[in-house]
Amino acid sequence: MDASLFVKFLPAFGLAALHTMELSMLALAGGLLLGFAMNAMRETGPRWLKPVYWFYTGVWRGVPFLVHLFISYFGLTAIGLTLDPFEAATLALVLYGGAYFSEIFRACWQSIPVGQVEAASAMGLSRRQIFTRIQAPQALRMSVPLIANQTIILVKESSIASIITYPELTFTTTKIVSETYVYIEPYLMLALSYWLLTLTISRVGRAVNRALSP
């Protein structure tokens, strides 16, 4: 093992880590918004929208992410929509993450004692008021650990974007290996990079959870 190679490859891995975090954080932000909106639609919308929720979450959770990525990058060209690797990976990850965040929010909403909802309803609050004033604050607080865990999964799933040549950590490692025929050092740096990213997310999640705890 050549320790000097770690220093040599560090700039490339630093840039790749930024690309990975850019993709993952956009997927997190978009997925959270989509997941919250889908659950809000299921909770407060008309009954005919519920099958839309179950169809979306069922398809996106039931099909491997790689298939969704290929559809975003290759399949959409059939309808005249051509996305670059970053756009295709972001779209696929947002929709993928949104399905899981939707289910996280649904589970947290359903864990709120029914008595609170019944009492609010007896006081004359509408379904929308109950959702925003009673259910949302509690459910969002309970969802923090689950959101942190799902964010870690999104970071690791972003490695699949290397298949469509998005220059994140895995793609950069593969490129370095193919150019230098060095294996141990690049793959150790790859493993260390993902470990540091997921460790950071885990600690941030715990800090937020402590801050929001009553």
Give a written overview of the molecule:
It contains 8 helices and no strands. With 214 residues, the chain is an all-alpha fold. The chain has one domain: Orthogonal Bundle (MetI-like fold). Helix 3 crosses helix 4 (85-110) and helix 5 (114-122) runs antiparallel to helix 6. The longest helix is centred in the first third of the chain and has 42 residues, at 3-44. The chain is flat. The protein starts with a helix and ends with a helix. The mean pLDDT is 90.
Amount of beta strand: under 5%
| The CATH architecture | Orthogonal Bundle
Give the name of the CATH superfamily. MetI-like
Helix-strand category: mainly alpha
Order of helix and strand elements from N to C terminus: HHHHHHHH
The pLDDT mean sits at 90
Cα-based radius of gyration, to the nearest Å: 21 Å
Q: Describe the main β-sheet briefly.
A: none
- In quaternary terms, these chains amount to single chain
Low-confidence stretches: none
User: Helix count?
Assistant: 8
